Queue: 3 jobs
Job 1
Amino acid sequence: MIGTLLIANRGEIALRIVRAARELGIRSVMVHSEADINTMAVQLADEAHCIGGARASESYLDIDAVLGAACASGADAVHPGYGFLSESAEFARRVTEAGLIFVGPDASIIERMGNKAMARNTAIAAGVPVVPGSQGSLATLEEALEVAEEVGYPLMIKASAGGGGRGIRIANTPDELTTLFPQARGEAEACFGNGDVYLERFIGSARHIEVQILGDGVRAVHLFERECSLQRRRQKIFEESPSPALDAATREQLCQSAVALAEYVNYFGAGTLEYLYDDMTGECFFIEMNTRIQVEHPITEMVTGIDLVREMLLMAGGQPLRLHQSEIILNGWAVEMRINAEDPARQFFPCPGEVKGLRWPTGPGIRIESGLYPGYRVPPYYDSLVAKLVVWDTSRAMVLRRALQALEEFQLEGFITTASLHQRLLQDPEVAAGRFDTQFLERWLALPAERTATEVAA
């Protein structure tokens, strides 16, 4: 059993973990940057340590500083949250070498499944279908051009160590591949400290669907899927569970393939397997695995009633996976709307500022994940996500109506957010009908605002 847990993250996910630890009687320790001294997570944790400057490289990405705080606080476990060091095999290994528990898979699994190119090869070995592409990372442009001739255009250039849509380019011709290949490598190196990239055929009309799994190193279960196709620049904006595109047979096939792959690698902890789903053919292709908790995990919790962070902590503390597949029931529908400090009317320009007034929506099926409070100033140094508005109801039609009502109740004074974007999306007939793919939001945003709610279906 874990006695003291150090949380190596910030924002709403740090607050989420602090609360889960408290419910289990675990003492929580926050690390934070100089810019984050006033966050709610720091205030609610049992102990907090400032580990460096505002820049992530000076604090949240500094392994020595995080481990120094863990040792000073007497922590016996570290939860990495998502982002920052959560998928760093080096960090997981250093935590273990320091005699601490890493709340997640061990370093060898992160290397194998967190590296997107290696994960593709593992999925192929496990018999899980993947998008046609290169066999592993490509070191040179010449190699990329040779593979491209075999796979065909258009192609996606993807960072092997990537995530969050970073380090991705789409090439339609050999000339574009020649230009974009070094750009993708450069961005991958800057974002992840690893410039390796690989190629996949670009499927333009696909949906992005992911399956949540839990594993204890021997056995794994799935907690159904999430639909994440509404993305801007490959950044998820609006998620729901289950997917409106899948019938029961396809859902079962997709989820069982995720369990098979998780058990093939003896996966430990919470993980997500991401797929592309082709509406036209009904085909599913594995694309990558995230070896950590996801931003959008609350919608899975809302439709299954299972606390994923609690299960992570219990397994990390030594308990075997206590869930059996037959016990996990899909109940109702849930959506998550990411509230970012950005102005949708100005190309999503960042708008951090001080919270001068705040009213959260309340009522049945409403869940808020946020560290905002009146007087709090959002720092400009990090991701623009400031809240997740999560809504549950008995059906998709009802949850969309409840979500719109929740947005109408939500009031935030002090800076602009993406709440207005969600209000428009929820009134769009195509979104209401569940007819969209990963390119939908970009096309929709290109339309004049007054048309998007009334003419898209025409």
Note: The chain has 16 helices and 20 strands.
Job 2
Amino acid sequence: MRFSGWRVLKEGLTGNKGWTGHWRDPEPKREYDVVIIGGGGHGLATAYYLAKEHGITNIAVLEKGYLGGGNVGRNTTIVRANYYLPGNSEFYSHSMHLWEGLEQDLNYNAMMSQRGLMMIYHNDGQRDAMVRRGNAIINQGDDAELLDIEGVRQRAPFLNFDDNRFPVMGALLHRRGGTARHDAVAWGFARGADMRGVDLIQNCEVTGIDVENGKVRGVQTSRGVIRAKKVALAAAGRSGQVAAMAGLRLPIESHVLQAFVTEGLKPIINHVIAFAESHMYISQSDKGGLVFGSYLDFYNSYAARGNLPMVEHTMESIMAMVPALGKARLLRSWGGIMDMTPDGSPIIDHSGIEGLYLNCGWCYGGFKATPGSGNAYAHLIATDRPHGAATKFKLDRFRSGYGLMDEEGTGAQHNLH
């Protein structure tokens, strides 16, 4: 079924009786060429690109819950390519190019909105860091523009420009940054993969990974044994637990990152705005809700809910930066489980076990990486060679110390990235 304006008009005039399900509900087969563990954005995108670009369609995506019920539906929907270290810079640039053609590629409305992203700086040191970051972004071939205080005021007059602790001095504007509807991204990739013959198997929990003589043979699941020539992990915040089933210990800690949304308001915020102080970021959804978040909760957890002190910290931050929002009512909050690496950068690599592949450690960058991650991971699985945009996402860098990408410059502490 292909979506079009004509199809919408026809269905509207005929009682909407012609729509069909977006994907099948198949029973798992006994064996596949590739089994992907995790039916979130990265797992579904990997299956889609394996089928579309490499012709591998005998694939099962195993999801213990429902498709898109994990981190891809528990984030703040931000899309950007404003990293500055080699490795991250070219990868997120590649991902942004895929984002910009994604809706046409999938024939699915992901509500991609390149409304622009402003990173606010509050002191001279942060300004210098923004200049450096902006130059790196431009050298990569993406866009960056340094704004002075008047440039920020024209775009966001509601900010608190006179706060004594955190005065707004300017911003780095990334015009191609913006948002996309997170669950629609998962559904679009799921639909595209299913149309190419991929089996999407929900309510199928992986309970073990079979390894014989250094080679992966398949997985144990709540719906029986499934044999596979290749097994690919894409389990987001649960990566450490799933990898342990194969005897691997990953350099990853899992932490909770909370996000919040207010009641629907009239349009007030036209950009995504991030503040260098307090790590807070805010945007407005198409339904009018203000979506925002800040730091991790600073303790290890697999719980998809956070603690009250971080709620208080985030509300204090938003009141300091945008006092006009003081009367907005908070509607709900949620937590996503971040798999944090020691340098804050991800892993797309072989595991050291033949036929077993890793896609993990996305820290804060998982959603914006979705199409790039799936595209690069599919390339690795299909060819056994790293994609050109992901050559630096090696697991071995944490053993050798060579090639670390500490984007935040905070050292080897997982929760500070």
Note: The chain has a mean pLDDT of 94.
Job 3
Amino acid sequence: MTGFLTLLHKELLRFWKVGFQTVFAPMVSTLLYLMIFSHVLEAHVEAFPGVAYAVFLIPGLVMMAILQNAFANSSSSLIQSKITGNLVFVLLSPLSYREIFFAYVLASVARGLAVGLGVYIVTTGFFDIPIASFPWVFLFALVGSALLGAVGIIAGIWADKFDQLAAFQNFVILPLTFLSGVFYSLHSLPPFWQQLSHLNPFFYMIDGFRYGFFNASDISPYISLGIVAMCFIAVSWVTLKMLKSGYKIRH
């Protein structure tokens, strides 16, 4: 238990000591999205009846920030440790693969929630953003960030170089995030793209998270939560298998 807490503490300090880069910079980027998209589309889009577009947009942007930063935390930590060689100190310790997994995932959750909470607090200074159900908001934020933390571990283990990790982020994570309904409601899309969106697990995280704010969503939050939870279990199983076998980190 002491080893697990030590690794978790080290991972928390790793991003917090460079908070301007890991917490405040993503907040600024997210707020720029809000400023630009809400200014351009405010008068043209009404996703939910009676909800201004900027207010509709904010929960999506908060969740996007949570997911992207949760992924960035575990993936960047692992690739840096592999390249600098200090990962050996984690592997030589008596830590089990489960303790390593949970330490990286919990640190990713902490960073994702810190950035998302920061974005939400800043936006409440300019907009009145209702929260219809805090448990739904917290549940989707928690499971979504844990899922992306686990995906980040897979990416960090798989990648041998920073450009491979950047490719994973730019060609997998970023498109899935942008096409998940952050900026629009699913019902505004043609039928083909609506069906295609149902294959994107990020859509369920965004839609369920948004349900917690407006008590309205494109599909039932129970279905979304079930799909996100199954994705988390499946990805965690793969991640634990990779850590247990030592794939690309012990051989």
Note: The mean pLDDT is 90.
